[in-house]
Amino acid sequence: MRRAIALAGNGPSNGVNPQVGCVVLNSAGTIIAEGWHRGAGTAHAEVDALSQLTPEQAQGSTFVVTLEPCNHTGRTGPCAQALIEAGVGTVVYAATDPGYASSGGAQRLRDAGIEVIGGVLENDVEELLEEWMLAARLHRPHVTVKWAASLDGRAAAHDGTSQWISGPESRARVHEQRAAADAIVVGTGTVLADNPSLTARTPEGGLHDHQPVPVIIGKRNVPGDALVHEHPLEPLIIGHNDLHAALSEMFDNGIRSVFVEGGPTLASAFIAAGLADRLYIYLAPVLLGGDKVALGDLGVGTLADRIDLNISSVERLGADIFITATPNRKDA
């Protein structure tokens, strides 16, 4: 299974489909084929591995796969049926598929007389597929909220200037994080005030191979000459402030992970609504004072209502401190 997990990492971490790896063993326990999923519309890991086998090799073999074989027809057919038709003997998988339409593959295999063993290194695969799993279970994208602030919690100086609070190492990391997300989300206020391009760029100034879909939330109009219209991908403009509905719309558009980088108003709204699954916090060793705080009203009226954080990592990036945390809350 560890080899299958390593193979899964070869696939793209973005998009509708999860990273999945597969290893095939013969009756002697020797690896005879390997496969992984290379992205939406391509063969799933099991079918990729199956394509490398003769019918005689597939008969009675053991498939070790990181995710329960799918049980539905999308851009490709159901993997469970492909394994049944190939006559495999045993299927071992790590994590159960949480999808409403795609789950049930294990039972389909058992009904066909194939031995099925589930839950092997399940936690490892749950960690690998954290964002995709949450999106599949909640039917909304996984949400990361990011902000940069001074040590006294300010996002800008008194006159509104904010470029740059954080250092070059932090800014480079942010662009890597943008490239890792399906979408980057800002509010119309940020578009009107800063006119950002919302692209993911390399330290040399070029574009990353993967670009997040630019998503703009808010009731104000986005100017026709805004830089976001020059983005390689067409912007998704959501003309209201209902965050639950906005996330549903993103999910329906194939977005499974979003990077919220839209300033204090939008960041605070996601956190207050209980929709922030992860926080990326960049703290610069400067003091600004004033009222330009990094976060606004979070709905915390008294200390008992505070939002506690679980800090998973603290890292030095140049002179800055980068904190990764998750709100300690129930899923919304």
TrEMBL record:
Pathway: Cofactor biosynthesis; riboflavin biosynthesis; 5-amino-6-(D-ribitylamino)uracil from GTP: step 2/4; Cofactor biosynthesis; riboflavin biosynthesis; 5-amino-6-(D-ribitylamino)uracil from GTP: step 3/4. Zn(2+) binds at residues 44, 70, 79. It catalyses: 5-amino-6-(5-phospho-D-ribitylamino)uracil + NADP(+) = 5-amino-6-(5-phospho-D-ribosylamino)uracil + NADPH + H(+); 2,5-diamino-6-hydroxy-4-(5-phosphoribosylamino)-pyrimidine + H2O + H(+) = 5-amino-6-(5-phospho-D-ribosylamino)uracil + NH4(+). InterPro entries: APOBEC/CMP_deaminase_Zn-bd (IPR016192), CMP_dCMP_dom (IPR002125), Cytidine_deaminase-like (IPR016193), DHFR-like_dom_sf (IPR024072), Eubact_RibD (IPR004794), RibDG_C (IPR002734), Riboflavin_Biosynth_HTPR (IPR050765). GO terms for molecular function: 5-amino-6-(5-phosphoribosylamino)uracil reductase activity; diaminohydroxyphosphoribosylaminopyrimidine deaminase activity; zinc ion binding. The active site is at 46 (proton donor). PROSITE patterns: CYT_DCMP_DEAMINASES_1, CYT_DCMP_DEAMINASES_2. Keywords: Hydrolase, Metal-binding, Multifunctional enzyme, NADP, Oxidoreductase, Riboflavin biosynthesis, Zinc. Residues 1-116 form the CMP/dCMP-type deaminase domain. Its EC number is 3.5.4.26, 1.1.1.193. GO terms for biological process: riboflavin biosynthetic process. It comes from the Bacteria. NADP(+) binds at residues 148, 164, 190, 194, 263-269. Its cofactor is Zn(2+). Coiled coil: none annotated. Substrate binds at residues 162, 178, 198, 201, 261. Binds 1 zinc ion. PANTHER family: 2,5-DIAMINO-6-RIBOSYLAMINO-4(3H)-PYRIMIDINONE 5'-PHOSPHATE REDUCTASE, DIHYDROFOLATE REDUCTASE FAMILY PROTEIN (AFU_ORTHOLOGUE AFUA_8G06820). Converts 2,5-diamino-6-(ribosylamino)-4(3h)-pyrimidinone 5'-phosphate into 5-amino-6-(ribosylamino)-2,4(1h,3h)-pyrimidinedione 5'-phosphate. In the N-terminal section; belongs to the cytidine and deoxycytidylate deaminase family. This is Riboflavin biosynthesis protein RibD.
